[in-house]
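=== RUN LOG ===
request id: a7f3
mode: sequence -> structure
chains: 1
length: 105
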Amino acid sequence: MDAERFRLAVAQNIRQARWRLGLSQAQAAEACNLTVRYFSETERGERNPTVEVLYRIAKGLGVAVVDLVDLPGARSKLDARLDSMKLTPPPTGRKPKPGKRKKTL
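=== RESULT ===
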């Protein structure tokens, strides 16, 4: 995927998040502490927002940044890659340091 298609996908995710809340662009821009023009241009894919701006938009719309940059099918591809690597989760208990024994009562 090229950068332009990625930017347009992010813009679409922003628009969908705003629509789910039933906000106008002006209301969303205010919630995100952005100008209406900047928010509108970002939502149309005409701006390349910084990470800070994506954070402000996510916070203002009540979503996670990952929801804004998520691409269709991207998570399923990642899950398949991780499954093929057969990764195991880290142990939940702490191991004692070498040379030290647990004290028993």
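=== NOTES ===
The first helix runs from residue 3 to 21.
Helices lie at 3-21, 25-31, 36-43, 51-61, 65-69, 74-85.
=== END ===
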